[in-house]
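testing teh design pipeline on a random one, pls ignore if ur not involved
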C-alpha cells in the first residue's frame, strides 16, 4: 500500500489527486487465522491527517493457511483456434519468427509503415547479390488463412523482387515500387511454414 500526501512543489492538494505526493509502497502481511470462518475483508482509510488517497495493489488472499502457492501457467487449450495480429508496434521482430536463416535478417522499419509506427522490412538494403528472408511456422488447428500487407521499393521484378512462400511454394512475386497491398491466402489445417523473401541481383541496388 501507499499513502499520498499533500505538498508537491507548486501544487495544491485536491481530492482528484492533483498536487499530491506519492508516498512509498509498503508490503503488509496480516495473519487472519483468528478470523477463520468469517467472510469479509475490508480496507479502511481512516484516522489520519492530510493524507487523501490510499492505494492498494497486488492483494493476495491465502485461504489455505500455508504459504501462497505460485500461480501455475495456463496451458494452451487443444483444438481451439483464434486470430493473431502481428503489428510490430513492440518495436522488435516478435518471438515466433525464425529470423536467423538468411545472411540478412529482417529488421524493424519505421518509414511509412502500414499501421502505427513500425513494420518489418528485408535487411539487405543496398546490398548487391543478396537474399533476405524470414520464416514463421504456425500450427492451424482448423482450415484458416493468413492476411498481411506488403509494399516494395526495388528495381523492376525482372531483377529484384519479393516472394511469399507457403511450405516452399511461391504464392506471389512483386518488384518495382508498389503501395501497401493486402495479401490473403487460405491455409489448410496443420503445420505450415511461411517465408517472406527478398532478393537483389548484382546491379542497381537502390530501393
Ligand atoms: Ca505496425
Ligand atoms: Ca538490382
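output:
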Amino acid at each position: 500500500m501507499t499513502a499520498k500526501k499533500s505538498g508537491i512543489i507548486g501544487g495544491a492538494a485536491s481530492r482528484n489527486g492533483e498536487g499530491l505526493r506519492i508516498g512509498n509502497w509498503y508490503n503488509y502481511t496480516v495473519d487472519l487465522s483468528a478470523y477463520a470462518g468469517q467472510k469479509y475483508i475490508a480496507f479502511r482509510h481512516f484516522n489520519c491527517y492530510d493524507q487523501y488517497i490510499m492505494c492498494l495493489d497486488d492483494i493476495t488472499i491465502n485461504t489455505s493457511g500455508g504459504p501462497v502457492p505460485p500461480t501455475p501457467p495456463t496451458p494452451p487449450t487443444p483444438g481451439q483456434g483464434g486470430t493473431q495480429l502481428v503489428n510490430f508496434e513492440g518495436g522488435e521482430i516478435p518471438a515466433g519468427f525464425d529470423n536467423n536463416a538468411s545472411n540478412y535478417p529482417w529488421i524493424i522499419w519505421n518509414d511509412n509503415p502500414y499501421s502505427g509506427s513500425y513494420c518489418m522490412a528485408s535487411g539487405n538494403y543496398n546490398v548487391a547479390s543478396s537474399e533476405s528472408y524470414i520464416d514463421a511456422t504456425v500450427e492451424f488447428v482448423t482450415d484458416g488463412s493468413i492476411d498481411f500487407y506488403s509494399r516494395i521499393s526495388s528495381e523492376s521484378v525482372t531483377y529484384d523482387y519479393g516472394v511469399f512462400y507457403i511450405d516452399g511454394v511461391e504464392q506471389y512475386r512483386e518488384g518495382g515500387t508498389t503501395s501497401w497491398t493486402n495479401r490473403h491466402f487460405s491455409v489448410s489445417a496443420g503445420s505450415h511454414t511461411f517465408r517472406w523473401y527478398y532478393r537483389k541481383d548484382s546491379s542497381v541496388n537502390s530501393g
